[in-house]
Each structure stands twice: as C-alpha cells, then as structure tokens.
Amino acid sequence: MENEMEKEENIKERIIRKSWNLFSQKGFEKTTLNDIIMSAGISKGTFYYYFRSKDTLLNTLSVIFDEEYRNVEEQMPADLDSFEKLMYLNYRIHTYIGENFDYRLIANQYAAQLTKEDASNLLDKNRFYFSILNRIIDEGQKNGELRDDLTVTEMVKLYGICERALVTDWCMNNGEYSLGEYSKKMMPLLFGQCRKK
Amino acid sequence: MENEMEKEENIKERIIRKSWNLFSQKGFEKTTLNDIIMSAGISKGTFYYYFRSKDTLLNTLSVIFDEEYRNVEEQMPADLDSFEKLMYLNYRIHTYIGENFDYRLIANQYAAQLTKEDASNLLDKNRFYFSILNRIIDEGQKNGELRDDLTVTEMVKLYGICERALVTDWCMNNGEYSLGEYSKKMMPLLFGQCRKK
C-alpha cells in the first residue's frame, strides 16, 4: 500500500514536471496532450486518471516549486544563520525559476491569482513553502537572529510579499535580467529590516 | 490659447475623475456611458472627442493617481526628512487608493500589466510619480539621509516594487484591511534599508 501510494505520487509528479518543462520550452498553447504523455512515458488513460485537462496542470506550479524547496533545503550549508538561510532559499528558488520557466507562464499565473480567475494553489497554507519559512523564522526569533516584534506569521507574509514583488518585477521586465542575481541583491534590502541588529 | 488648453485639460480630467468614481461605486461593467456623461456634465460628442470608448478610460488610472500625488505634495509637512517624505507620500496615496477604489478594479489593472493585455500607463516614465520620487531621493542622497550606494534610479525602482507589493497583497486579500494603515506599518520595513544609518 505504501509502495502503491509512492508510485502514484511519482507518476503524478512526473507528469507535472514534464509538463512544465514542455510549457517552458514550447509554450503552453503549443504543448499538446500528446507531447505530455510521450514525455512522461504514460498512456492517455493514466493522464486522465490524474488530471482533467491540460489546463488543470496550470494549477500545479506550487507542486513544482515545493519540490525544489525540498531539494534546496537538503543542500543548505550548515553554517548559515536564520537570516542567511532565508536569503539562500530565496536565491536558489529564484535562480531555479529564472532558469527554468518562461516569464510569461509565471506572469499569467500571478495575474490569475490577482483576478481570481483560477484557484491557483501557490497561496495554499499547507504548502511546504510555508512550513519551511515558519520553521526558519521561528528558530531565528528564538535564537535572537531575527527581530521578534513581528509575529512569525507576519514575517512569513512579509517574506512572501518581497518574493512576489521581485518575481512580478522580473515578469514586467520580460524576464530580461537574471531573477536569481537580481534577487540576491534586492532581497537583503527588502527583508533586511527583519534581521536583528 | 493658454486658457483653451487649460479648459480642455480640465474637461478631460473631470471625465477621468468622475468615471473612476462611478467605476468604484457601481463597478466598471455596470457603469454606462450615459452615467459618465451625466456625471461629468458633458455631451456624448465631448466624451468621444477625448476618449474612444469606456474601455479606454481604464488606462487613465495613472492620471488620477498623479493628480493625488500633486495634492499630497502640496500638503507635505515641511519638517520631514527625505525618508519620512517618502513614507508620508506612500501612506497618503495608499490611504487614497484604499478609500476610493474597489480592489477588483486595481487588481484587474495590475494583472493586465503583468500579462501585457493593455498598455497601462502606470509605468510611463514621464509620470509625475517618477519625477517626485526622483527629486526626493536625489535630495536625500545628497544631504546624507538616504544611502548612496544605490543609484537614484535603482532606489526609485525599489520604492515602486515595495508599493506594488503592498497593493498587490491588499488586492489578493480582497481589500479586507486598510491599505493605508497596513502600508504605514510595512513600508518602513520594506524600504527601511535605504535610510542611511
């Protein structure tokens, strides 16, 4: 049973990952269902077992991002303080986004969130993203590395606001510069007041 | 001739101002062209002299905002330093937006910018918004109140990123809290690193 669930999870995640690769390479419109099932090595039936349509896949960006957050956490250097951990996380994820996603895809997802045209799950409070941020910030407040006159929730929200601002700006500049390098410079400026002096 | 131009400007601005009042009160869809010409006290012909359609008016948000920036500048207390001036400006404008605009209208404009569905002029470099920010930041760097290891342009951009982040977040929370009061708390956190220590 354990194995069955694990296998299911793997197939679903593989479909998601392969699809986003295709969306970035060929564009969302030009990616066909056939491209997706070929690339994931599955049947049409298997695809429809997990997803209603190609459009449904647009709501899975958070799955992809969270997978990367888990990777990055494993690779996190041990000697960083809490503030540095947050900056490292941001730098790695924004580098990942900048290098692997067409800015138009990201822009469309963010715009859809704003106008509530879809039920994007980037804001789902159960995301790994929120759990890792909560953990690092809570730790940082307890050991005196982050200011503690804001609640953990407020600081997580502020961190999210900063990231969203940087990604949005990158999109509005047509992805012309490196999202990772720009964030490396700007994120400590935007979030720096949260570090305890 | 001077008077003619002034008069034209006034009519155009009145149409814009009255229209946005109506959009916020009744919603954009439910506002008719008739509502607009009645409210502005003009004929249909006069409306079409200035605007192609009701839709065209959506691109005039920057005109409204800049009008308010001019008002706020006139009311700016004389004893503020450059950083405080920037915070005052932000607080006043965000209070104005929060109190006068339906969050859905703002969300749609910001989303449209992201997906380039329209040529919104909020980012037009000739806006009064950019000129007043440039002026205050340049002054602040020269008299040592703001850090000078970023260019004026970089700092104006950062200020814009922060404001956009706060407005976006307010929209995503369905305008549930006061944009002005939230910004009063958050803007000094987000932009605080630009103050010279």
UniProtKB/TrEMBL annotation, chains A, B:
The keyword Phosphoprotein does not apply. Keywords: DNA-binding. Gene3D superfamilies: Homeodomain-like, Tetracycline Repressor, domain 2. Residues 9-69 form the HTH tetR-type domain. Residues 32-51 bind DNA. Pfam families: TetR_C_4, TetR_N. GO terms for molecular function: DNA binding. The keyword DNA-binding applies. This is TetR/AcrR family transcriptional regulator. It comes from Mogibacterium kristiansenii. The lineage of its organism: Bacteria, Bacillati, Bacillota, Clostridia, Peptostreptococcales.
